[in-house]
Amino acid sequence: MKLTSQLYTAAACFQVLLFISLGNAERSDTRILLTSNGTLREKHGENYCAMYDICGTRGDGKVVNCPFGSPSVKPDDALSAKIQSLCPTISGNICCTEAQFDTLRSQVQQAIPFLVGCPACLRNFLNLFCELSCSPNQSQFINVTSISQMKNNSTVGGIDYYITDTFGEVLFDSCKDVKFGTANTRAIDFVGNGAKTFNEWFAFIGRKAAPQLPGSPYAINFRSDADLSVGMKPMNVSTYSCGDPSLGCSCGDCPSSPVCSSSALQPFHEKGSCSVRIGSLKAKCIEVSVAIVYVLLASLFLWWGLFHKRKERSPALRAKSSMNVTNGGPVQQVHGKKDENISTQLEDIPQVASGVQLSVVQGFMAKNFRLYGTWVARNPVLVLCSSVAVVLLLGLGLIRFKVETRPEKLWVGHGSRAAEEKQYFDSHLAPFYRIEQLILATKPHGAQAHEKPPTIVTEENIKLLFEIQAKVDGIRANYSGSLVSLTDICMKPLGEACATQSILQYYKMDPKTLEGFGGVDHAEYCFQHYTSDENCLSAFKGPLEPSTALGGFSGNNYSEASAFIITYPVNNVIDKESNETKKAVAWEKAFIQLVEDELVPMVESNNLTLSYSSESSIEEELKRESNADVITVLISYLVMFAYISLTLGDTPRFTYFYISSKVLLGLSGVILVMLSVIASVGFFSAIGVKSTLIIMEVVPFLVLAVGVDNMCILVHAVKRQQVELSLEGRISNALAEVGPSITLASLSEVLAFAVGSFIPMPACRVFSMFAALAILLDFLLQVTAFVALIALDFLRVEDKRVDCFPCIKVSGSLANTDQGNDQRKSGLLARYMKEVHAPILGVWGVKLAVIAVFAALSLASIALCTRIQPGLEQQIVLPRDSYLQGYFNNVSEYLRIGPPLYFVVKNYNYSSESSQTNQLCSINHCDSNSLLNEISKASLVPKSSYIAKPAASWLDDFLVWVSPEAFGCCRKFTNGTYCPPDDQPPCCSSSDGSCSVNGVCNDCTTCFRHSDLQDDRPTTRQFKEKLPWFLSALPSADCAKGGHGAYTSSVELNGFEDGVIRASSFRTYHSPLNKQVDFVNSMRAAREFSSRVSNSLKIEVFPYSVFYMFFEQYLDIWKTALISLAVATCAVFVVCLIITCSIWSSGIIAFVLVMILVDLLGVMAILNIQLNAVSVVNLVMSVGISVEFCVHITHAFLVSSGDRDQRTKEALGTMGASVFSGITITKLVGVIVLCFSRTEIFVVYYFQMYLALVLLGFLHGLIFLPVVLSMVGPPSSNINK
User: Fold this and answer.
1) Which of 321, 361, 785, 834 is the most exposed place for a label (fewest CB within 10 A)?
2) Residue 904 near residue 429 (C-beta atoms within 8 A)
3) Other CB atoms closer than 10 Å to residue 523's CB: what's the count?
4) From what superkingdom does this record's organism come (predicted)?
5) Do the bridges between strand 179-180 and strand 185-186 make them parallel or antiparallel, or are there none, so unpaired?
6) 228, 1023, 1102 from 906: Cα distances, Å
7) What's the rounded Cα separation, in Å, for the pair 311 and 290?
8) If you write DSSP's letter for every residue of 3-43 in order, what string do you get?
9) What are the CA-CA distances from residue 1182 to residues 550, 756, 988, 1255 (Å)?
């Protein structure tokens, strides 16, 4: 939404009205002709004038013609040459004096800069006024219809100007598409008040101007119905089509040119949407394809299942199966009870467990865990103290702890192309201004929110807006003892007034003019005439486009707008620590405080709404967020602590619960988790890595959820051992049993997060780094400090000491027998898993149904994945109660103009030897496929190009400014120095706001004649000399093309003397962008466009917009996600393969992980969770977390003996309860607390995604995986075979 302040330049040019005043001096038609002696006489014919000479001057300086008919006169050679230079169609006799011609010339010079880019348009336009003023046959198409008296002289009061419709149509067609780059709009908006037909244009030109306003001093009625009977006929001088190749109009100014049609716009990338209609149902092709695939796979699977069942029922096969069981040896397993002390019996064979040969790695790990467990049990205090000491040492790094809250440092990756382009733009041109904004909107009538709100354009609301503006102007922020006001920091394009974008600009920002200008009617008038009426110009001398100050309207119906949009552009600098930036930030804080304390109540009392934002708002709100969820995280820890204490303890019995409970052990485990987080943060802080709010609030919860699982598994493993064994034996056996699986799960989680550290977004990369180290440290603390704590806790129990108060010892023998019995008995959950859950899953029909359902879920999720949109809504990152929530919603609802878009050209070679000038420009003689012509063509298809308007071109305006035709622009004194236009000092004297020519610039001449230029282009020396003149030239009525203000920061002049401009930009706008996907697609389209143009022209061009830096990550987010997930899954597969040495089991684990990921993506699509770096990290993390649901069951399956059904049953009985209570429930308890978070990002990306992950992991780990293992699990390596 860059200010149209850059239009200021056009301000004084107010359109063609000015040119008309030229006509004032020269027009006079007559159906009623007056002789010089005052007698009336009708005469219409060749070589006869309808009005001749000047007979009066109005109070505003406009001259008026004499209404006297007379024969045309023959001019002298000098005058004839002057007339021919401007009006080549006028030859021989003429109907104007030299004074009249000079008036004509001075007036049309105001229009020439608008139209000179298209010679055909300019020629037709000049012919219209040349014929009116000086044609020798003037009386044939001019008829004076009224006469006025001025100082006793008769003057022309009104005329009829007869013109053929053909001339009008060709004139309009040749000019309707001519651009006025400074304003990113068409020239017809200025010289024709936005006319849509030639009749509208003529009506605008012909209206009589009020005193002091530009336009004709008398009314001109354009007609085509001339009375031939009296010798009249319509003017029909030769016209020129803009497509005439001899006149060289550019494609941007004349899209219908044959040259342009041969260089048609290349189509922009648009994602097609393949769909299939089945009756009244319309479905995507992928959905239909997935349905077909599922039907085929389900049919094949059902056929295989029935065939397999029939084979099992064959008597021969049953006999063979029975023989295999007998010879295989696991009869005890089938008919008897498993010897739970088998691991102790096989201590001398560490690679053997339960009669099954372990892999080399598993055997090695089991052996070493057994030895390590024995050592820890013997030296628990030493292990505990040393491990805690190491962690506390790492925690000392917290003295360098810092939190990063700057958005560009959180969400923009190092080496980002967009970041580099922003740096280039800021350093070579100028940083994009800071934006402070208010959105004042009406409320819908009644209770129905969907009803259309009433218009906000009322006199009461405008008065309210003036009150608001007065309070904003009154802000005085304190910075280092000095007071900072808006005028101290605001952007002032012409060095006068702030370029505030507000409807109040139509009243010159002065409440006193509200009544004088006609109240609200003046605003509605300016909505249509903001480019053409001087009274509609802003206080900063530029036209204000209504779409930048209004919102909530459709099309160009500005009067129905339901919102005022007030934007305060503030100067920006590269150095964020500079005084200028600190002053702006101080003012912004005072601005937000004023809005909250005074403006919001004021607006609400008027039944309106107010949303607001400043440049520093997001950073300030992110800082405020740091304390938003502290209570939530603390509650999560307390709830988790309570659950751990309950689940780690034995079955509660009143007689000994104070001894058998594990409250102190649970608390110690939670403390270890906190220590691992502290150590991780301390380590990275010590090496200079800043933390983030996500790390502070999510990593503690995440590590707790992951760490609790292993705590439960370790404690349950120790409790499963025979109580008759010594404590050292129980701990060593437990570590040998579960050590490999928890190591496998922990390493998988660490590797998954390590993969996440390669994601380019800093916030997510740092999060992954901190989380990976925290999980690694937590695992190490679990197998060291926590194992030592288990040993100490069991010693406490054996010594009959009270939990939480171990110094208190209880006498008696209440504990021993009961606890021993309790440890020998299987828990209720374990019995359910073995006696109910496993048998149900063992039913063949159930297996088929499970496979069919889970396959359907996965295939449906694949189809749903296409619905996931990239992006991260800004509202989600902020606290729910942030004032920015309403602001961002209103921006999407009300704004009707997109963000500014700059096309930046590097190393533009402007020398005469280079062709790059014509490759960039879009005026006459420019290449049809030039950059600016391509931008103009792209703006014709905004839905796919996301380019709303042709670009404002400093190059086009400069070439026009130096052209001989624009004789009022580039001028020089006799000494060769710059001479400004006649309506600027020192050429005119200013008094009371008026400017009268004082003769100082009478000797000024145009900079160049056509013969001085090279192919109508300035030479290298001329370009080098005049470009600084152009950039410092103020725009005015006499020359609207001055570059000061509009292009001050568009060209880098450093080092341009060698013929190369290092950096320059051409500004346009994106079309309105309301959704995250719009921002992503607009950036992709702009980059594709720039790449194509760069390759075509061999000139380096790149697009830049302020939001690109934050949205670049989404261009390839799917690629990043898929690669990260593939690497993480492969890493888990490799770890599993190394530890189990079984490709079969590793493949099954990887396959289930992929299914969980696919289903999680499907849930994201259903919940409308977008794909971004945060969700990608969660997906990568889900690989590690999902391993826990799979690896323990699979490991238990591997170390069990028997057929697949028996081993599945044994695995569920051994580890199913731990997976459910120690993994599923613990994660659910911690996750559910996050739903109460005040920050949406935690609710969406951590509560919803984690909850979905836990549920999917539970379903796949305890239902789908056992079925798969029972059907196609790896064979048992029974040592008795």
Assistant:
1) 321
2) yes
3) 27
4) Eukaryota
5) antiparallel
6) 61, 18, 8
7) 31
8) -GGGGGGGGGG-TTHHHHHHHHHH----SS-B-TTS-B---
9) 46, 11, 75, 12
CB 1257 within 8 Å of CB 705: no
According to DSSP, the residues that pair with 990 across neighbouring strands are 995
Q: How far apart are CA 866 and CA 875, in angstroms?
A: 24
Q: Of 576-590, 1035-1049, 1155-1169, which range is least confident?
A: 1035-1049
Question: What gap in Å lies between CA 421 and CA 418, rounded to an integer?
Answer: 5
Cis amide linkage into residue 986, ω under 30° from 0? yes
Burial of 155 (0-12, 13-18, 19+ CB in 10 A): buried
Q: What is the dihedral of CA 251, 254, 258, 261, to 10 degrees?
A: 60
Confidence of residue 1174 (pLDDT cuts 50, 70, 90): confident
- Please give the C-alpha separations between residue 284 and each of 272, 280, 1081, 1169, in angstroms, as whole numbers: 11, 13, 21, 20
Write the DSSP symbol of residue 358: P
Q: Compute the distance between CA of residue 442 and CA of residue 439 in angstroms, rounded to an integer.
A: 10
Q: Which two three-digit tokens encode residue 728? A: 């050292």
Dihedral of CA atoms 93, 94, 95, 99 in degrees, nearest 10, equals: -140
Report d(CA 748, CA 710) in Å as an integer.
14
Amino acid at 649: G
What are φ and ψ of residue 124, in 5° steps? -65, -40
Q: How far is residue 554 CA from its own chain's centroid?
A: 23
3-class secondary structure, 313: coil
Query: Which residues partner with 997 through β-bridges?
Result: 988
Positive or negative: CA dihedral 1006, 1011, 1014, 1020: negative
Give the side-chain half-sphere CA count within 13 A for 329.
10
Residue 44 has pLDDT above 70, yes or no: yes
pTM attached to this predicted model? 0.79
Helix then strand then coil, in percent of the chain rounded to 5, is 55, 10, 30
C-alpha 735: how far from its chain's center?
51
Task: Give the integer Cα–Cα distance in Å for 502 and 892.
Answer: 19
CB atoms within 10 A of CB 786: 28
399: Cα separation from own chain's centroid: 36
Res. 341: pLDDT tops 50: no
More confident residue, 230 or 1029: 1029
pLDDT of 257:
74
Sign for the CA dihedral angle at 133, 137, 140, 144 comes to positive
Comparing CA positions, the residue from 1256, 1253, 1264, 1254 lying closest to residue 1208 is 1264
Would you mind telling me the total number of residues written for the chain in this entry?
1281
DSSP SS3 for 68: strand
d(CA 552, CA 561): 5
Helix (H) or strand (E) holding 569: strand 563-570
Report the C-alpha gap between 1171 and 1208 in whole angstroms.
37
168 and 198 in contact (C-beta within 8 Å)?
A: yes
* Structure token pair of residue 653: 């019995």
Helix (H, G, I), strand (E, B) or coil at 204: helix
Q: How far is CA 7 from CA 11, 369, 532, in A?
A: 7, 77, 12
- In terms of Cα–Cα distance, which of 1117, 1108, 1106, 1113 is closest to 1082? 1108
Taking only Cα atoms into account, the Rg of the chain, rounded to an integer number of angstroms, comes to 42
